[in-house]
Structure formats: C-alpha cells, structure tokens
C-alpha cells in the first residue's frame, strides 16, 4: 500500500512532549489524533479485531520528498498468547522504502484485552492478602477463612479462597465490591501465628524515576502532579549518591504509586512540570529515543546517527528484556536524508 501524504520530520526540539503518547503530531492522522485511519491503512497482514488493539506509539517520520511503502508482518505466536495476558506487546514491523533501500523500524502495539478476557466484576470483588509472620508460608485455606469470618464477614459472603504461585500470597473473592473495599480499608487482620495484609487485586505498586528536574522544585508539588494524573502517591524521595565521602543529591525523584492494573501504559515518557521538562522512567518499559522521539531504541542506536540498527523488542511475559543488535549497514537516508530527525546527534 502506498501513500502520497507529505510527511514532516519530527525532531527533539520542535516536537511536543506528548506526541509520543497521544499521536497529536502523528503525520498519518493529520494532527487530529484519530487513529482509525492509521489502523485500517497498516492492517495489511492477517485480520485482527479492530477493537483488540490500540495505537500506543507514534511512527517514524522521513522527509516529505521520500515515497513510502508500508507493509505488515504479525507474530502468530504472540497473537496466540494474547488469551493468557492482560496486555501483551505485539511486534509490528513497518517497511519504509527510502531511495530504494528498505528501512525497517519496530513499533509497539499494546493489546487492550481487559474488557474481553477478564471478568472485571470478579477482579474488583477480589482481595489479595500478603501473609507475614512465623507461619507465612504454611497458612492453610481453613485458617484464611477462619480469620476472615473472625473479622466480621459471613461465610456466605466468601465465594472463593485460592492461592497462585507465591506461598505467602492468598486471594479471596467476596460477594460484592463494597465488601472487598471494606476489607482493604479496615487494614491488616492479625492472628496468633500470622497477619493478613489486604490489597486490591486490580491495583499495583509501581516505582518510577523522574529525571531532569531541578532540586528546588518542592517534592509535594511533583507528587501532586502524579497523584492527579496516574494514581495515589505512597512514597516520594530523592535519589542520592556518595562522591568522595560527600552525600549529593542527583536531581532524580523516586516516586511510588498505587495504580490500577494497566494504567502504567498511560504514563508519558516525557512531560512538562512547572515549565520544566521531565523524563519519566518506568521499570520494564522500552526506552524513548531523545533524537527521533521513537520508542524501542536509545539515541546512540538511532538510525539517523550514520549507523543503521535494526532493533527488535524482546519480551518475556510483560518484561522488556532489551534491544537485540541485529546488524549494521549504512544509514538508509544517506547524505540526502542528512539529519532529518532533528535534535541531538547523541
């Protein structure tokens, strides 16, 4: 499939910090942010349910005088595995024909499977118990039920008690979501040999690192920004290091959030906070290139640096394992393309 649309190069200096996430600067949508046309144009491969995927990253942009050809190849094994994962990345390849030389770039699509493959009602009625104490690994199901009924629950209000891989983690599904909320809000349940610490099953703790911010910005202001957009801030501290016996602040803030499962995908790579640009590092997430603003490689491996790297995103479950160096060849854009991506050469 081909297109004659004019494509403007995206650079580090003239690109909004939110372009990577909301596609407002995506040339394929004309700046409207509507990705429906993008999906239909890029689905040249096997048929995929239109509602099953959502665009999560922007696309590489080349100079406007370059003709482009887009084709798709889908990973069949990844598609088969979608049924056992809430959100599993799908490897998606775009082939650009630049002056007769194919240029492969890996983009990332996130499967939004919660509404189709997870019973959200059951998830929200479930409580996760972290067990501590001298018998945290040997607590039985009967003891869990006895502890819950002793805290005021009726036996008919407990629908399921089960355990997964962790021996010190138990799950309970209750009759209503209000019961689950009340159990968590009341706090820990203490027994003679163990203590149950309840948590919501549809929420998780996430520790992120916020860089590039000056140290004179108040911690509470930074915490309120993340609390308003992403979740509850439970810890906020500053990263320090020791140099020659002197303890120094590094300007990096370490923030721990309690968010709903899946909301970590909404956290921007870059944001503006009190007029200052901030870089947000999320564990397990592919990096952003500070040169071309694309996801999946770092600036030193950017295709616009004179050396071409075909980068592949490798995933094990939901964890990002790194970039695989495939090969090296001259920059497909050559001298004609130049530093079309703009920004730092890095």
Automatic annotation (TrEMBL):
CCHC-type domain boundaries: 289-303
GO molecular function: nucleic acid binding; zinc ion binding
Endoplasmic reticulum listed as a keyword: no
Entries under PROSITE patterns matching the protein: ZF_CCHC
Polar residues bias: start-end ranges: 16-26
Keywords tagged on the record: Metal-binding, Zinc, Zinc-finger
Chain intervals for the UniProt region annotation (Disordered): 1-38
Protein name: CCHC-type domain-containing protein
Organism: Mizuhopecten yessoensis
């Amino acid at each position: 499939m081909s297109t004659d649309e004019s494509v403007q190069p995206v650079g580090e200096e003239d690109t909004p910090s939110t372009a990577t996430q909301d596609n407002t600067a995506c040339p394929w949508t004309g700046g409207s942010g509507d990705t429906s046309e993008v999906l239909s144009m890029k689905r040249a491969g096997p048929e995929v349910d239109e509602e099953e995927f959502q665009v999560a990253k922007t696309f590489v942009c080349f100079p406007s005088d370059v003709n482009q050809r887009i084709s798709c190849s889908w990973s069949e094994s990844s598609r088969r595995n979608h049924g056992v994962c809430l959100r599993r990345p799908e490897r998606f390849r775009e082939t650009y024909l630049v002056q007769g030389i194919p240029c492969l770039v890996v983009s990332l699509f996130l499967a939004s499977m919660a509404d189709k493959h997870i019973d959200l009602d059951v998830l929200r009625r479930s409580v996760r118990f972290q067990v501590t104490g001298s018998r945290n690994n040997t607590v039985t199901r009967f003891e869990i039920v006895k502890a819950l009924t002793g805290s005021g629950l009726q036996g008919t209000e407990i629908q399921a008690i089960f355990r997964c891989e962790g021996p010190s983690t138990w799950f309970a599904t209750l009759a209503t979501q209000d019961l689950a909320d009340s159990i968590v809000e009341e706090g820990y349940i203490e027994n003679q040999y163990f203590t149950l610490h309840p948590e919501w099953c549809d929420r998780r703790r996430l520790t992120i690192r916020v860089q590039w911010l000056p140290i004179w910005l108040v911690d509470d202001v930074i915490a309120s920004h993340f609390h308003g957009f992403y979740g509850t801030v439970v810890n906020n501290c500053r990263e320090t290091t020791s140099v020659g016996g002197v303890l120094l602040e590094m300007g990096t803030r370490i923030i721990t959030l309690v968010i709903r499962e899946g909301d970590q995908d909404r956290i921007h790579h870059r944001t503006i906070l009190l007029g200052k640009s901030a870089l947000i590092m999320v564990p397990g997430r592919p990096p952003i290139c500070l040169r071309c603003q694309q996801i999946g490689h770092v600036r030193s491996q950017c295709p616009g640096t004179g050396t071409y790297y075909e980068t592949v995103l490798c995933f094990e479950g939901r964890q990002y394992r790194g970039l695989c160096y495939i090969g090296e060849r001259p920059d497909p854009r050559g001298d004609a393309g130049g530093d079309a991506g703009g920004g730092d050469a890095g």
